Amino acid sequence: MNKKFISLLVVLIVVVAGLYWAFGLPRVGDPEIPASTQAMANGEYLYNAAGCAACHQVDGAEGPVGGYEIESPFGGSFSTPNITPDTETGIGGWSGRDFLLAIKHGRSPTGGFYWPAFPYRSYQGMTDEDVLDIAAYMVTLPPVNSEAPEHELPAWQFSWMMSGWNIMADFLEGELSAVGNDEQVQRGAYLARSFSHCGECHTPRNVLGISNFNNEFAGQEGVASAALTADGLGAYSYEDFVYFLEDGFTANFEQVGGEMLDVIDHTSKLTQEDREALAAFFFRED
Ligand code: HEC
Ligand code: HEC
Fold it and tell me: Cα(260) to centroid of ligand 2, in Å?
């Protein structure tokens, strides 16, 4: 083999490796979806904790049939899909692997990329067991045959671009701060970050829409400016905050509004213990 050919081959290998890195599917194994009543009950609880219905089941729909519109900061709008187990218009027949790839990695069963309007970058913090429990609950929902509308996005936007976006986000979003060893605070952190996705609306983003975890919960201009930091929550006592998560009354005795009402709708259904864990996380001292 001559040298030119070898260097060409090396370049080719590097390019293919790069593409594989960018487009290859993460290895998640192919675990079974559990079928125990315990798994389903935990899954139902966590499905609520993660606010799945806020985006997939709206306006009194008879199930999570989608059709909820989310405005894109880059023009146009997303429409949520039907996630009932209907085989034609929903996600009927999904395996454990499909659920893990979608919820934790933003990848479709065929290797496509989801838009981060689906908050998979927050959900990636879920344990595989918890994702599979959510799946265990979701596969028991009645299938509803209902075609959700398509996204309406500018022609230059392609979802495969999210391959590069995800890699950039890995590098640019920074590190979530450590939360110490207190079990209650850890539970609160797990719920706030990986389920309730408080940061999707309350953590600042850069021009590409990538979260800045070095400034976690400092408020997001134009979305939810309230900072969930010691300063931002200055008007709340720990008890006020626990009540806020239950009834949506702010420290000024006003009913909170906007999309925060959907959040209260799910935090109000958590156990008191979990609301206290959330408060312990936001009011931690370190
Ligand atoms: C903030 C809104 C939002 C929340 C909350 C949300 N989703 Fe979604 N979800 C979306 C959007 C938007 C899409 C479509 C993404 C795309 O097409 O690229 C989506 C797509 C999906 C898909 C892919 C469906 C398909 O047909 O390929 C599944 C499965 C899914 N979501 C399940 C969930 C589950 C389970 C939860 C809760 C753990 C959840 N979603 C919470 C907005 C949301
Ligand atoms: C879907 C976006 C979204 C998510 C997710 C979200 N918030 Fe909010 N939040 C908002 C918006 C919007 C407001 C401003 C509401 C208003 O206008 O009354 C707000 C306001 C607040 C306030 C200020 C209330 C006051 O005193 O005025 C607090 C505290 C708060 N959110 C806590 C949380 C916590 C804790 C979580 C996670 C459990 C969370 N938010 C998740 C959108 C969100």
Answer: 5
